[in-house]
Specification:
Layout: E1 6-11, E2 19-21, E3 37-42, E4 45-55, E5 70-71, H1 80-93, H2 97-102, H3 107-110, E6 119-125, H4 137-148, E7 152-154, H5 155-160, H6 165-173, E8 177-183, E9 188-189, H7 201-211, E10 217-223, H8 229-242, E11 246-250, H9 258-267, E12 271-275, H10 281-292, E13 300-304, E14 316-322, H11 339-350, E15 353-358, H12 363-370, E16 375-379, E17 390-395, H13 407-418, E18 422-427, E19 435-437, E20 455-458, E21 461-464, E22 471-472, E23 487-489, H14 493-503, E24 508-512, H15 522-526, H16 528-532, E25 536-540, E26 553-559, H17 572-584, E27 595-600, H18 606-613, H19 616-629, E28 637-645, H20 650-662, E29 670-683, E30 686-695, H21 698-714, E31 722-727
Parallel strand pairs: 10-15, 10-16, 11-13, 11-14, 12-13, 14-15, 17-27, 18-25, 18-26, 24-25, 26-27
Antiparallel strand pairs: 1-2, 1-4, 3-4, 3-5, 6-7, 6-8, 9-12, 19-23, 20-21, 21-22, 28-30, 28-31, 29-30
Helix pairs in contact: 7-8, 17-19, 18-19
The structure holds adenosine-5'-diphosphate and zinc ion (ZN) (2 copies).
Adenosine-5'-diphosphate binds at residues 197-200, 203, 223, 225-231, 383-384.
Length: 732
């Protein structure tokens, strides 16, 4: 008899522990490996678990240990590299180990589906015999096309290219084409039709800095919009591509445009895999499996949003994080990880290079560069012929501004259109107006479930709370005093669109916001006239700020960006400046003399002047000084415990109790702020409160969090309270 052994299993549950199970009867130790999934009995149910360890020292009495129900995988779904990354997540973010590990997996694998891709019918070229298709031009065309597609296509590709099943069927009968069922892996094919550009001096220096060191070499590439960062990325990864390795390119949530993908496609003869939120669960699993089974036959470039950082990539050799400052890299629920930070950790553990690129780096990364943790490389000039748009401040105090935009600025738009160019009006508010109000009694359209106002929409007409998604029909009278004079206050994208359409009747006005871009490809269709280059006006939210190249946009007008200047969030100014620069960067990308104008009521704001007269870098240094003075990140480290409850005051009481419990464990160098009501205390019907835990030293904060972990997970007596822990929170 061999000695008994046990499996230590992690479950995808908010429980801060692991569980021991017995193996299946008659199975042997080498049937199991760390990183495989099993089904286990848990309470009345069956749950998917991951094998964390195989051992012979159970935590509980052996007779109490139940056997697993089934082994799901024949080989691990998580490599030891990713298992370690999952454990690192657990250590750093102090979330349950099971949840951390399961977060690395595609949803279908979390649910226990076998790690197999769906299969699709493919057609292969068997035999070329032109005589057999002499009198069948469509069949001949298919053969020719198949030849060009490297002799194999999927059924869907064939239909998309306009061939019918009957044409293909006849070729199969003639034994010229064969059928094959294969994993539905569908990477885009790169075709390397485009040559690398000759780099300018700054780019050349940058490339040198990036390639001068082997192994882990984190680089912050700070380059103004249009300075040719993308060209540097492309040349930096080219040796990895030649060696048929894998490259991971992280991009922001809404930054993936066809233009971005095209640049990689045209440069490299590599497979390009996209991993973004538009994929369904099965497509995501297929892409994940395709990356995890990379065989070094052809290089693979994986372009994806935040969670793509967890893709299994056995031959990963280079990581790029584009727009590294972007807020969408931070996960805001569940395991609240930062995709950029994980990317750096992953590069360090694999000992490979990583570039963090941005025109407006986050203060965190800039700080890391200034203290020499990262190599700091700057591109200060636009590449090619373009010159950057000047940032101008337009003072609207003492002016009557109808429909949200000053008359003089409308004249600028008119001149731009007359020159045959395009104009972009940016306003970060969708809907018609942010508020409906009654001039007779002062009533305003407040949401009953949030400390917020309901936005007035006209297309179609309704009131909508953007915080809890509550919708309501539009009242015709004031609900308070029955006055019929209720009216819109302020302006959003819809109102501007209407106003600009009225004012510029001969030109197209194109509105881009979340409401106008529902549905697949809606955005690209709307943008067609812009890409065609006809004079027109773009009106939109920050959806316009990322990724797009608008060569003919020569004037950018920004409205209401100043709302961030006086926010309670200490990061507001940083975020506002990044947004301003990003939007301004849409102007004059390929021409001279573009203008970017900020319409503001706070034209004297010193930081705004710094931004317009100097640049983002100067502003960022000033903001860092301020952070240092006030002991704020990156000069201090923070964790935030958030709590909420449907009952007023309950979340706050919960945090008070928690603070009482954890205070005795407090060591030197740990401080607390709160509990305090959250900035929007009532949201979606729940009252929210928060407690900050801070330290100047990351290791102290981490130690403290480790020590209080059991208390966090054990606090009882508040059934209605939901709580979460956010390490390095990026907002309140
Ligand atoms: P960024 O990513 O920094 O915003 P891009 O890489 O998109 O900048 O470059 C902006 C434009 O300049 C693109 O049209 C690109 O083709 C062009 N460009 C980049 N590098 C060079 C170069 N060395 N010579 C000529 N044109 C360049
Ligand atoms: Zn009223
Ligand atoms: Zn609401």
């Amino acid at each position: 008899m061999s000695t008994p052994f046990y499996l230590r299993i992690a479950l995808d549950k908010p429980l801060n522990q692991t569980f021991d199970y017995e193996p299946l009867a008659n199975s042997r130790m080498h049937d199991y490996q760390i990183g495989m999934r099993v089904n286990v009995p848990f309470g009345q149910r069956s749950e998917v678990g991951l094998i964390l360890d195989i051992h012979n020292q159970p935590d509980i009495a052996p007779h109490k240990i139940k056997p697993i129900k089934e082994r799901i995988d024949d080989s691990p779904v998580l490599s030891s590299e990713l298992m370690k990354l999952g454990l690192w997540l657990h250590e750093y973010y102090h979330q349950p180990v099971g949840e951390c590990l399961f977060t690395l997996l595609p949803v279908l694998l979390r649910k226990g589906q076998t790690a197999k891709a769906t299969q699709e019918k493919h057609y292969c070229l068997e035999h070329l015999d032109w005589q057999k298709v002499e009198r069948a031009p469509r069949q001949k065309a298919f053969l020719e096309w198949l030849q060009k597609q490297n002799h194999k296509v999927s059924h869907k590709q064939a239909l998309d290219a306009g061939f019918t099943p009957s044409i293909i069927g006849q070729l199969i009968d003639k034994q010229l084409v064969s059928e094959l069922w294969q994993d539905n892996f569908n990477a885009l094919c790169g075709d390397s039709v485009e040559q690398a550009l000759a780099l300018n001096k700054e780019q050349e220096q940058a490339l040198k800095g990036i390639s001068e060191k082997n192994g882990f070499n984190p680089v912050l590439l700070e380059g103004v919009t249009g300075s040719g960062k993308t060209e540097v990325y492309l040349q930096a990864i080219s040796s990895a591509v030649t060696q048929r390795k894998q490259v991971l390119v992280l991009i922001p949530e809404i930054g993936l445009t066809p233009q971005t993908v095209q640049r990689f496609q045209q440069r490299f003869n590599a497979d390009i895999l996209l991993l973004h939120s538009g994929l369904n669960d099965q497509q995501r699993l297929n892409a994940w499996l395709q990356a995890s089974r990379h065989k070094n036959e052809k290089a693979q470039i994986i372009i994806g949003t935040r969670s793509a950082v967890f893709t299994e990539m056995p031959n990963l050799d280079f990581i790029i994080v584009d727009e590294e400052h972007d807020a969408s890299y931070k996960q805001q629920e569940g395991i609240r990880y930062h995709g950029r930070d994980i990317a750096v950790i992953r590069a360090a553990k694999r000992n490979i290079p990583i570039i963090l690129g941005s025109a407006t780096p986050s203060l965190d990364s800039l700080h890391n560069a200034l203290v020499k943790k990262y190599q700091h490389i700057r591109l200060t000039q636009r590449a090619g012929d373009a010159s950057p748009a000047n940032l101008e401040i337009y003072d609207i105090r003492k002016q009557s501004v109808e429909h949200g935009i000053a008359d003089e600025l409308l004249q600028h738009i008119e001149e731009t259109l007359e020159q045959g160019d395009q104009a972009l009006v940016f306003i970060n508010r969708r809907g018609f107006a942010p508020t409906l109000y009654c001039p007779d009694c002062g009533w305003i359209s407040e949401c009953k479930r949030c400390d917020a106002r309901m936005t007035l929409h006209q297309k179609p007409a309704h009131l909508h709370c953007h915080h809890c998604d509550h919708k309501q029909t539009l009242p015709h009278q004031c609900p308070n005093c029955l006055s019929t004079r209720i009216q819109a206050m302020g302006a959003g994208t819809e109102r501007l669109e209407t106003h600009l359409e009225y004012r510029f009747r001969r030109h197209k006005v194109i509105r881009i916001d979340r409401d106008s871009t529902q549905g697949k490809d809606a955005m690209e269709q709307l943008l067609q006239p812009v890409h065609n280059g006809e004079p027109c006006i773009l009106v939109g939210t920050q959806m316009l700020a990322k990724g797009h190249h608008f060569p003919k946009v020569n004037l950018v007008i920004m409205l209401n960006v100043d709302s961030g200047f006086f926010s309670a969030d200490f990061r507001a100014m940083e975020k506002t400046a990044q947004l301003i620069l990003q939007v301004a960067g849409r102007a004059g990308r390929e021409s001279h003399g573009g203008r970017a104008i900020i319409q503001t009521e706070f034209a004297d704001h010193p930081l705004l002047h710094l931004l317009s007269e100097e640049n983002y870098h100067a502003l960022a240094l000033a903001l860092l000084e301020e952070r240092k003075l006030h002991s704020l990140p990156p000069y201090a480290h923070q964790a935030l415990v958030r709590a909420d409850s449907p009952n007023p005051k309950e979340a706050e009481q919960y945090l008070h109790r928690l603070l009482q419990n954890i205070k005795p464990l407090t060591e030197n160098g740990i401080s607390f702020i709160g509990p305090l009501p959250s900035p929007m205390e009532l949201r979606a019907g729940r009252f929210r409160s928060q407690l900050w835990i801070r330290s100047h030293q990351r290791s102290r904060l981490q130690n403290f969090l480790k020590n209080i972990e059991p208390l966090l997970y054990q606090q009882k007596g508040f059934n209605k309270v939901r709580w979460s822990l956010d390490v390095d929170p990026s907002d309140h």
